[in-house]
User: Fold these one by one.
Assistant:
Number 1:
Amino acid sequence: MYLTQDQLNQIRQSIEKQRREILEKLNERNDEAYEPEIRGDEADIANSEGIVLTMERLQSRDLRLLQKLDEAAHWMEDDDFGICESCGEEIGFKRLLARPAARQCIECKQNEEQRERGYYHPRPRRPRRDITNDEDDE
Ligand SMILES: [Zn+2]
């Protein structure tokens, strides 16, 4: 375990904060349950269906992140917390604080994203992104 107790506490708080934010967001969406207008022409109907689909996608993205946060909270109990599941290197305190659900170090994450987009080039490395601007799940 390369993280100090103080760092672990901060990460735990970050997990709790993100969990609360997601739960609040999900509750808000449930409160304003969306009712599609069934009158109108086909274009309107197609549009309403599009909105419902988008909201479902957003919701499942949140639920996925929520599950990852729960796993991270559980993972914190283990000695190998904060170790990249791909390369075994330390994920690092700063990244874990910003992305407590992360299971990979920033390099492995970026390599994986590049592979997914179909242009994986292990060398030369792209410049590191600022982790606070990283918009995806992790
Ligand atoms: Zn790694």
Number 2:
Amino acid sequence: MKYLASLNKYFWKYRWRLGLGIIFIFLSNLFGVLTPQVVRFAVDETIDEVTKSHNSNTVVGNVFAHTILWTAALILGLALLRGLFLFFMRQTIIVMSRYIEFDQKNELYNHYQQLDSNFYKENATGDLMSRITEDVSRVRMYVGPAVMYVINTVILFAMVMVVMWNVNPELAMYALIPLPLLALCIFLLNSVIERKSEKIQQQLSTLTSAAQETFSGIRVLKAYTQEFLTEKFFEKENIEYKRRQMSLAKTESVFFPTIFLLVGLSTLLVIFIGGKKVIEGTITPGNIAEFVMYINMLTWPIASMGWVLAQVQRAAASQKRINEFLSVQPDIKNPTEEKSIPKGGIEFHRVSFTYRNTGITALKNISFRLLPGEKMAVIGRTGSGKSTLASLLTRHYDVSEGGILIGGKDVRALNLEELRSHVRVVPQDVFLFSDTVSNNISFGNDHVNNHTIKEYAVHASVANDIEQLPDAFETMVGERGVMLSGGQKQRITIARALISNPAVLVLDDCLSAVDSKTEYHILRQFNQLLEHKTAIVITHRIFSLLHFDKIIVLDKGSIVEEGKHEELLRRQGLYYQLYELQKQEEKNTL
Ligand SMILES: Nc1ncnc2c1ncn2[C@@H]1O[C@H](COP(=O)(O)OP(=O)(O)OP(=O)(O)O)[C@@H](O)[C@H]1O
Ligand SMILES: [Mg+2]
């Protein structure tokens, strides 16, 4: 239950709606409880008239005109009123639960967005999704229906108790004895049903994934003539599925008979004990009719308590999972609302970084300084720590040791949003949204017009490719950009970064999927475009075409060489080796 306490803030938020709902529940039950009393009156009155009168014809006429007709009308009226308030009750409480569901989804989504890379590495996407969908809707079953049924049962029970007690306390007791037993039975049956349904669900997913794998690998299967084997496997799983379904059906078939048995028992007791009391003269026959109706009225609300209990348990488990995520605080937080970024260059001061999850030290004691407007290349073999360097600069991770300064100020003290728009990284793993090409380019810059978008597409040497697409710039790129080639995607992300016109641009291996001719074009553009910008170009290829003020060569997380192109070549170290290798490759491909 303690997990569900975190939902109280929502109940408080919607307290007026909830309060109104409770009033409606009260009213609907009030009209409900009045009905048996009208019936009691009708029965007693009829019996009275019959015993008083001797002429059977006048009796029928009298009784019908005086009692039955208008009590029937009254009962109808009460039923209508009750129905009306039941409608209002659902309109307030169930609608409240939808509002809470809405709020909770938003709360989780906003929280997700604040969490950092570490969180996303440690938790699977499927898990994130299921908490925001399935778990939230299970919680809704608690804040809506479960709460509604509990309040309803409590109010109805109290009302019925009062009227029954007034008639005859002893008879009231006998009538109520079987009901707690009913609730217990339903709870137990419900738990068994839940458990069995869960098992069926598991088996169903085994079955579907077995089928899915078979069909997606059908060509291999047929080629190796293994149909028989998978058929056997599928049949075995299917038999298990059937067995579990049958077992559930058996439990479910006990459900209703149990309810009717216990309700019947209650009715039997009332008629038996009540009958004796009528003979004694303590109660009237109408009271028996009334009691039987009360028992029937209580049956469903009490029976629903078993269901409610199961729902509350599920909701608590779900809320626990939701709270787990909500309580995660991002390591990387925005330290200040002060938006300005100090002018000046970038400095890495003895930076070391170890990935928390793998324990891999990706960068060791890295120091360099880059003045505004300077261009730097970071070169190194795969796994040498180049991308890590970019992630640290924009605080996707924080350094383990040392510090990164912009304009002399530590990045950890700068406004996070400003920092990330000051330094734009074109990441190595391109990502396009399933939207149009132009929206993918203008992403986050709503004010740019189509003309500008085209201009930047030209800068990134991708305009020609885009024009070839069926709807040119308005083409939908498909999920993650499946419609496009790797190189086209890369260049679109370059255009995306350029259009936001950042002061510092970091290009992480962004030309790996383009051919050397396109590379040549882009690099020529870069010479102009980056003229007044600070740029860090991460690459494992050496671009002799671009002028770099500084080149650092990374190996296993450390800077092994540093200098300008010619100096590094003269040194005949790792840079020289990489360069020679590249020249060889280029010769071979020509
Ligand atoms: N998210 C991560 N979690 C844990 N370890 C990581 C993560 N990303 C990278 N590493 C490790 O850090 C080291 C440096 O990786 P990094 O991605 O910076 O290399 P890189 O120089 O960019 O390589 P490439 O040229 O292949 O892109 C590698 O040993 C890698 O295994
Ligand atoms: Mg990389």
